[in-house]
Amino acid sequence: MSTSSSSHRRGARLRREYLYTKSLEAKDAASFESKRLLKAALAAGKAAPTELRKEYDELKAGVDAEDAKTEAGASALDDEYAGAGLADPRVCVTTSREPSSRLKQFAKEVNLIVPNATRVNRGGYRVDELVATCREADFTDMIVVQETRGEPDGLVISHLPHGPTAFFSLSNTVLRHDIAGVGSMSEAYPHVILPGFESKLGRRLGNVLKCLFPVPKPDTKRLMTFSNDDDFISFRHHMFARQGPEKVALSEVGPRFEMRLYQLRLGTLDNKDAENEYVLRPYQNTSKKRKTL
């Protein structure tokens, strides 16, 4: 899994270009927020906020010139998944070092539920070596499953080539062979259901999850559900069959587990000094009214 020095230099240069361009966009964030406040005031028939009156003419001209895309503040750099759907994703699935037999089995099942995934034995390779090799092999994402004392308790999704990287804790992990009466697993591209992802961060995380999966055919009978409830995400995998015009039968084919996001980082897994978009803080665990996603 060795890489040439030229590919390292090219990757570093692309990363610097990406961060520089994104920093230029960040400078426009204050202007975008000011235009949003002005537009809300105009829509409500109110006077412009006091702090905006000095630059009212300039902001009003900007608001009048906006179209549907610029109004949303969207750009290809704000959304690293802007090209999703143009080509099927390719996902690398691997584990932490010296995995237990249960973690290996869990990695196999993650490899089965994600179409176009390739499972790679970790061996003694470092994280930076894994990321560099995945870039060279044109993988779009890398999934790393982790454990504590033989129980899967962590999952990392890193989008390539520039990020973001989402870190999840896992709980209540149930493998396929632990589910009574489990059905056979289809290899069709699944429909992905994401209820409860309502905030800006939630929609961002929804992109991280759904872009692991290719665009399905309309008639596929396979479902992947990531259901958010109070920032805890329940994953379920089902097959369904219609039994009438208003009746559908579901059969769980596993695995199942609960996820909680504790960090979202702008860079890839090997960029430890990259900027954090979100970090779970201890006080958030006791804030009953605060829902991040």
UniProtKB/TrEMBL annotation:
<dbReference type="InterPro" id="IPR044281">
    <property type="entry name" value="IMP4/RPF1"/>
</dbReference>
<dbReference type="InterPro" id="IPR007109">
    <property type="entry name" value="Brix"/>
</dbReference>
<protein>
    <recommendedName>
        <fullName>Brix domain-containing protein</fullName>
    </recommendedName>
</protein>
<dbReference type="Pfam" id="PF04427">
    <property type="entry name" value="Brix"/>
</dbReference>
<feature type="domain" description="Brix">
    <location>
        <begin position="89"/>
        <end position="270"/>
    </location>
</feature>
